[in-house]
Amino acid sequence: MVTLDVLLSAVAAIGDAILIVACWRHRAVLPGIAVAAGIPLIVFAVTNRLTSSMAEGTLVIAVIFQIMGTALLLGGELLTGCWPTGPSQT
To answer: Is 52 within the bounds of a domain?
Structure first.
């Protein structure tokens, strides 16, 4: 039987994989590091289901890393679009 913790862990792992691919395509290092830091936390939460409060807290921290990575990726893309692409030819 699949518990809620395992289901949430699977969703968080899929989200991490999607964000890592997005960071790879946009060549964004810092968001990729933030997202990749959540992967061991997810593995820890799945393997350490003995204390459910610890597993839930670990999943919350992994989701916070996902939100941080997403914000860094979107903020970097926004700032990249604000700057001119090259020197002006005046």
So the answer is: yes
